[in-house]
Write a structure and sequence with these properties.
single chain; about 90 residues; alpha/beta
Amino acid sequence: MINLNKKDTVVFIGDSITHGGRGLCMDLNHIMGHGYAEMVCARLAADNLENMPKFINKGISGQTTQDIAARWDEDVIKYKPNVVSLLTGINDI
């Protein structure tokens, strides 16, 4: 179990593996996607119900390592996350 606080932010960043088919609107049923980020977020939220930290999915399908690095400041640093999950597949090949 990971203990998170009310002010903690968890950012997921990567390619399609992280994107997970997430909706680009604020529809709470699809904002985290339908993959590993959604499952991890659900577990962390359940373990931290009293604190309800903030979860952000910034995965973009088709991204390479260079693409992700180019948007690192905008998609990760600006949120000042306490936890970052970076997961990519084979788009660099």
